[in-house]
Amino acid sequence: MVLTDGVVRLRAWEPEDAPAVWAACQDALIIRFLPVPQPYTETVARKYVAARALDWASEDERSFAITDAAIGEVLGSIARHRRAEHRAEFGYWLAPNARGRGVATRALRLLVDWSLETSSLIRLELYTHPENDASGRVAERAGFSREGVRRAWDLDRNGNPEDDVFYVLVRGDPRPTI
Questions:
Q1: Which CATH architecture has domain 3-170?
Q2: Residue ranges with strand state E in 42-113
Q3: What's CA 95's distance to the chain center, in Å?
Q4: Alpha-carbon distance 48 to 33, whole Å?
Q5: For 98-111, how does the pLDDT look when each residue is reduced to its tens digit (9 = 90+)?
Q6: pLDDT tens digits for range 112-123
Q7: Are 106 and 8 in contact, with CB atoms under 8 Å apart?
């Protein structure tokens, strides 16, 4: 499965993507806002890519490498996790060199459009760390609305409770165009 808008391309993960994942997961913002293992080794990156490839074994999970449509460079990751028959959760991260160019917004729009076209999903949601304003702006540019803060929703890598900001898009909600 490949999704593209001509600028970004979403495709299944491949074993040779592991070095790009390793390099991205050395970034301070990824370490701060995502529960990636520390230290993040090349072995961890290879396991991540292999696990994401297995996400296609059922209808519940879909993980994609976000790549540059012109040159194929891995720019990040995006996934959809089905949480109920009518509800799915989305998540994404970008390598530092891909930020600030609209890449995440384009990728999220592609995955949301495809999800709504090919499934019975009604409620699409994602959540971000309260200090991750950039990720919240991506959600809003893709048509999600800020729903609110869920206190102690998640645990950080040290097991401490962490609040998260939720964004939701319901089938039929008006969506912005690029």
A1: 3-Layer(aba) Sandwich (3.40)
A2: 61-68, 74-84, 87-94
A3: 12
A4: 17
A5: 999 999 999 999 99
A6: 999 999 999 999
A7: yes
